[in-house]
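Fig. S4 source data, part A: sequence.
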Amino acid sequence: MNNEFIRKCCKESFDEIKEIRRELHRFPEMGNSEYKTTEIIMSCLDKWGVEYERLLDTGVVAFVEGKQNGRTIALRADID
């Protein structure tokens, strides 16, 4: 994957990501009570065809596989 491809993907998804951020900030939630946030995340993952698993009430683990076998990268993000 080259830098130009990454730039193109970022440019193409910028408006959608910006709108998701705005949607999330319309519904501020207390820590460990991010029910609406979790629903928004799962809705996006469904739309994008990304497999995920819901953990407890507000946890989501997404699984993104590349086209080739090889190295594994793990990313962690908090939603509170």
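Fig. S4 source data, part B ends here. Residues 64 and 70 are 13 Å apart (CA to CA).
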